[in-house]
Amino acid sequence: MSDDFLPFSRPSISQAAIDDVVACLKSGWITTGPRVAEFTEALKEYFRAQHVLPLMSATSGLHLALLAMNLEPGDEVITTPLTFAATLNSIVLGGGKPVLVDIDPHTLNMDISQLQDKISDRTRVIIPVHFAGLPVDLDPIYEIANHHGLRVLEDAAHAIGTEYKGKRIGSFGDTQVFSFHPNKNMTTGEGGCVITNDQQLADQVARLRFHGIDRQAWNRYGKSGSQDYEIVLPGYKSNMMDIQAAIGIHQLRELSGFIARRNELAERYQEALSDWPQWNLPQRPAYEHLHSWHLYTPLINEDAAGMNRNEFMLAMKEKNIGTGLHYRAAHLYPYYRQVFGFNPGDFPRAEDVCERIVSLPLFPGMTDADHDRVLDVMYTIFN
Ligand SMILES: Cc1ncc(COP(=O)(O)O)c(C=O)c1O
Questions:
Q1: What pTM did the predictor assign?
Q2: Ligand 1 centroid to 244 CA: how many Å?
Q3: I want to staple 293 with a disulfide (CB 3.0 to 4.6 A). Which of 223, 252, 262, 308 is the partner?
Q4: Of the residues 184, 223, 237, 317, which is catalytic?
Q5: What residue ranges in 234-315 does DSSP mark as E strands?
Q6: Measured from the CB, is residue 21 less than 6 Å from ligand 1?
Q7: Does residue 161 contact residue 176 with C-beta atoms inside 8 Å?
């Protein structure tokens, strides 16, 4: 058994992707160009979506999609406290005020039974987060959103490959944002995309991602392109590069295999840990779904474990096994407490989960031997 450090996540990059990155580097065109166009088409086909906008991150996607939703001062955007800070930061940068709904203690997704009470006459957008790759129960969310005339921006950073009631996340609904960060279900290095069937929103995100110009640079400088352009608004610089798309094109082809392996590994944890009193294991909702298992996140039972989550993570690290913390409760960061007045106790379920949650190693290249090693080390730590 190898004692090398086992990270909690590691990207699987094929030789074909590496070769394509090298070919891209040698081609003379490394920023947004033909490979981004090819990746865009491949994603459109994968999602059967009308508009796909690759970007440099999901954070940019959330930010630009919210800007394109034209929030006005005081407008409220509802999300969950169990998310990466990027979700809340994007709400603020997009001009909105974050309003939070506590989580369902079983799925760890937004508790939809509390959503209705949070809707005010200033609510404009709901951002459900498909936490760990488990789809949020979208039917009631869209029902509530349609009833109140609200937009739904799904934070699907964890959820490429996830299915809800037989449909891929991203293939239906209002607007979705996916992440291609290295620890996600597929990667482009850094990267992300916005998916929408809303032409106006797509056009605005396209302008915002590249200086407020609505045509791509390679069109302007290519043989057939025009050099002329207009700036129609002060945009950002969030375009994806061809170097990134060269990786993404191959990752997308391998995605279903990655998801299958993630499912095997998660199932292996569920079986092996089912009678360990130290853990509360991830639970599944009754509605039909395909979990993409971006993360495997049990909750530690401190009494049975004889240690808290942070002590467990440290003990694992000392035994050369990486774990992840997804996440600290977003509302308790100083900025959100000071500016929006959130306090400890506001979202008790999320706060409890955020004290106990751990991401155990899970990535497609993880072998059964790696998995056994994680279980053995946990056993020695607890016994
Ligand atoms: C729930 C969630 N939203 C948004 C993001 C931002 O993704 P990116 O790193 O691609 O900007 C992340 C990244 O970890 C995330 O977990």
A1: 0.97
A2: 17
A3: 262
A4: 184
A5: 279-280, 289-290, 299-300
A6: no
A7: no
